[in-house]
Amino acid sequence: MKTISTEEIYEIVYTAIDDFNEMQEEDEKLEKKPATVLFSRPGYTEKGVLDSMGIVNLLISVDEALDNDERTVDISFDVNHILEKKESILQNIGTLVDHIYSLSQK
Amino acid sequence: MSQQISIFTLASFNQQNFNAALKKEWKDANITSVEYEQMFPYLLNLNPNSEKKDICICWISLRDVFQAMAMKLDLAELVLKLKDSFKHAIIILPTIDSPSFNMFQGQELRNLLYKINLTLAEKSIGTNVAVLDPTSWLVKHGANAISSQLWYLSKTPLHKNVFISAADACKSTINAFTGRSKKVLIVDLDDTLWGGIVGDDGIENLKIGGHDGIGEAFADFQMWIQRIKSWGVVLCICSKNDESIALEVFDKHSGMILKKSDFIKWKINWDDKAKNIAELVKELNVGMDSVVFLDDNPAERARVRNALPGILVPDMPDDKMEYPAFIRSLNCFNSTHISEEDQKRSELYKDEQTRSDARVSFVSVDEWIKSLNIELNFEELNDLNLNRAEQLLNKTNQMNLRTRRLSKEELKNWSSQKDHWSYVVSVKDIFGDSGITGLLGFHITAEGNIFLDDFLMSCRVMGRKIEDQMLNFVIEKSKYFGSVKIVGEYLPTEKNKPVKDFFKEKKDIIFNSTF
């Protein structure tokens, strides 16, 4: 597998967010920045816009974007696993990118 | 339909993504859904005439077939109950897609799917129900169309792009029901209707039909355009060419499927295409939003799009072999019912052209109209003219006093009530028979007045004072019934200014509304 930088992963994830945002209402679109909180977690003040369906849709879009990019086509992006660990992996876009980067190093 | 469209979706899968796709088509719509896994209880408890929505979309799937079998229910009949419950809505039923899994090698289940789909299709004819085949939505998105991952994670069976295609098809279906389908197709010639540039390559070198892949694709493309014409769409040409050279292709090239006589008007010259199209549209007396323009050249498409808001100018594929698939995928020409008038619409427009040409030789309009020997026939609504009456009621926009939209059944029920009348109006003159082109509906009010419920006329026969004769008919009726007054109500829409202009000057009728 070719090595890939976090910046390049951000680029791929942002492509996925563009695809995801196509179906979102204006006030539910995700901002393309590392600190964007994805969903609201109990006990945290930061609010995210995604409900459970939104999270699945985003992860499917990211999965497709990874499949479509030859640099990341071999990354094993396990949507079900991410959903199980969503409290840590899906805190924000940055943590999702970190997770993908860690997968690329395996 | 009310100002804010209400849409109700019904399925046994999670409809969130489908609803989001519908929201893209109807931005201000109020979309609600049956709760997850509640489709069967909902259908089983439906009562006649109980639901007040504008659109109901019920998307049944293979899982529902299994569930209905387990519950010993006739799924098609159960779904068709929606017709009675959503009496004033348009109901859309995507049929069950037939999966290609090996587990269905036994024909039994597949045959059952076919039977359910056929029952839905047959029992929807002439009703407020449209049955849509989802195959094209699935095929378009290939291997990703059906997503096991989405299903097991969110109970959504299909990729969002399939729902986007489905929502687009639903929108065009509603357009067909409400008379917003496109009525005119204007085509370019070189590399659009045939392969090559006639002025440079010569007729003999154009690719149309024959033993050539590209040529066959253009022949198929022309065949589809001819089919679209048979649905009542009027064909025109707008091309930058020398007219005599371009038209020679129709006469001399043996591969041409379309004939010159298939087109009712053309502008073949070196002028700006936007200007030419604007002139064509004006001559046809239709709105720009009724028109589709096909051109292989992206620059010409951009120019026309920018200059003529409302016109539909779809992007054509670069690969000419994709032209037939491209035109098949255009669902803007959908029609709920193809009437005899639709099939001969081009001929009717040609008669109109002959009429207009004749008009030039007369000094006054009245003199010209008199020379046409116009004959009007008023016939009470009956089973034979009901299809055309319903079509006129739901398609006519410009010369339409109240733009009341009713299904066939509703129209029939309305006019069968005591003191309610509907008349269809047929028009013919020395140049031809325009067929049924007008509809009148009125009832006697408690005060003994005649109230005009429907006063509408196809734009095709406008300008011949047909509307005056229709009004005279109502006046005669009011005398016959001994009615005190004729009362009208003008309900303005974006398009019905012509009817306002007509009634504004009429003194025989009292209007509830101001102009």
Condensed summary:
The complex is a heterodimer of chains A (106) and B (515). With 106 residues, chain A is mainly α. In chain A, 52% of the residues lie in helices and 0% in strands.
Distance between the termini of chain A: 10 Å
Stretches of chain B where pLDDT falls below 50 for ≥5 residues?
none
Shape of chain A: globular
Tell me the Rg of chain A in angstroms: 13 Å
| Whole-number mean pLDDT of chain A | 90
Determine the oligomeric state from the structure. heterodimer
Taken as a percent bin, the fraction of beta residues of chain A is under 5%
What's the average pLDDT of chain B? 88
Q: Give the overall shape of chain B.
A: flat
Helix content of chain A: 40-55%
Which structural class do the helices and strands of chain A define? mainly alpha
What can you tell me about this protein's structure?
The complex is a heterodimer of chains A (106) and B (515). Chain A is 52% helix and 0% strand. Chain A is mostly helical and 106 residues long. Chain B has 515 residues and is an alpha/beta fold. Chain B is flat and about 75 Å long. The mean pLDDT of chain B is 88. The A-B interface holds A 23-25, 52-53, 56-57, 60, 63-64, 79-80, 83 and B 14, 16-17, 20-21, 23-24, 144, 147, 149-150, 153-154, 156, 160, 164.
